[in-house]
Structure formats: structure tokens, C-alpha cells
Specification:
Blueprint lengths: L9 H7 L3 E3 L2 E3 L15 E4 L7 H9 L5 E5 L2 E4 L3 E4 L10 E7 L2 E9 L4 E10 L2 E12 L8 E5 L4 E11 L3 E10 L2 E10 L14 E3 L1
Parallel strand pairs: 3-4
Antiparallel strand pairs: 1-2, 2-3, 4-5, 5-6, 7-8, 7-15, 8-9, 9-10, 10-12, 11-12, 12-13, 13-14, 14-15
Length: 212
């Protein structure tokens, strides 16, 4: 049976337009280098580029995890030896609502998995029946998930639990979705830091949002 042809998306086509191709591998241009990384960008081999966002691939290339990285379905392989599975806390294509109340405000996050690297979300902060703040977009998994999980705490129960961090970084806002599992209970915490300063949310001030 012949090898399945690699599919292509406009997002990765744009990314690879600035790369030096080596067979099925690509060295992504270092347009937005990670200041903590050192050395040349990694070579990335992708089985199916539709499984990951352009932003995730760019960050993965410059984060300094390894010189050679392979992406195959839900697996990330460093230097052909160390294999890590992408967190799959949410089903693909199905919206899930997480909510919490604090200080008279309702925190509501609707979130759906787009692919292995990316979540689509709609975050609303409500006061009574009024939506006082809203942010909609896509957030990408931080490549550091292969090193260790984030650890968050539910102030209501006092328990700590591991979480995976998904990031949206734009010119105006930094938004983090920290999706975790507390002994079988899915929980979310939010970080929101926008230039406007309106309704920003620090990690320590965010309640644990529970699946509705």
C-alpha cells in the first residue's frame, strides 16, 4: 500500500513558504524567536499539518526542546527517542461549557477542541443578565507540556491538580486557558491580561470553573 499523501492547509502553506525544506522536514524561519531558546530552530516533521495550528508549530520550532521533532497524530517525538502524547481532555468538535461564580460575577467559558494543538473558545464575564466582558478566539497548547504539567489549586476544595495551558497572545491581550483534571473532575482556570486593563483576571483571583 502506498504512503498516504500529506494533506495541506493554507495556514501551514504560509508557514512553510518561509522554510528550508529537507524531504518531509522543514526548518521554520525564526520570525518570532523564543527569548529563552538558544541555537538554531528545530527541524519539524509533520504527518498531517491539519492536526496542528501554525502558531503552535512556530512556537514549537523556536522553544528549544530539541533539534529534531516529529509530529504524528497525537504524538510528539523528540530526537526519535522521547515520545509524548498530546493532552486530550476534551473531545474534538464538541463544545463544553465551564462556569463559576465569584464576587457577584459569572465566569463562563465555552470551549471546543479544533485539533491536537488548539482550542476554540468563547469567554464571557457576566453580572446578572448582562455580559460585561467577552473574548472569543483560539488558544494553542504551550509546547512546555512535554516537560511538566502546570499545577493549579481549587480554592473551594483546597485541592491541587495538574493542568495543560493553552495560550492566545495578541497585540492587545494575553489569554490563558488552564485545563485540568482533579481526580476525574474537569476544571478550568483563566488568566486574562489586556492592555485596556478592563476586567483583567490574575490566576490567583480566578475561581475554578467546573463543567456544566
Amino acid at each position: 500500500m502506498g504512503k498516504k499523501p500529506q494533506t495541506s492547509s493554507p495556514a501551514l502553506d504560509s508557514l512553510l513558504a518561509d522554510t528550508a525544506l529537507m524531504g518531509n522536514e522543514a526548518v521554520v524561519s525564526d520570525e518570532n524567536p523564543d527569548p529563552s531558546a538558544s541555537g538554531p530552530p528545530a527541524k519539524i516533521s509533520v504527518k498531517n499539518d491539519l492536526d496542528y495550528s501554525k502558531e503552535f508549530l512556530q512556537r514549537l520550532t523556536t522553544c528549544g526542546l530539541a533539534r529534531n521533532i516529529e509530529l504524528a497524530d497525537s504524538l510528539l517525538i523528540l530526537e526519535k527517542t522521547d515520545t509524548f502524547a498530546f493532552p486530550m481532555d476534551l473531545p474534538t468538535g464538541k463544545w463544553t461549557n465551564f462556569v463559576a461564580m465569584k464576587g457577584g460575577y459569572l465566569y463562563s467559558l465555552d470551549v471546543a477542541r479544533v485539533n491536537y494543538s488548539t482550542l476554540e473558545f468563547n469567554f464571557e464575564l457576566r453580572k446578572g443578565k448582562e455580559t460585561v466582558d467577552q473574548l472569543v478566539g483560539k488558544a494553542d497548547l504551550h509546547p512546555g507540556f512535554v516537560l511538566a504539567s502546570e499545577i493549579d489549586e481549587d480554592e473551594e476544595t483546597g485541592t491541587s491538580y495538574p493542568a495543560s495551558e493553552y495560550l492566545l497572545d495578541s497585540e492587545n491581550c494575553h489569554f490563558s486557558i488552564r485545563l485540568g483534571d482533579d481526580e476525574g473532575v474537569r476544571k478550568v482556570k483563566i488568566i486574562k491580561q489586556c492592555k485596556s486593563g478592563k476586567f483583567n483576571i490574575a490566576l490567583e483571583d480566578c475561581p475554578a470553573l467546573l463543567e456544566k
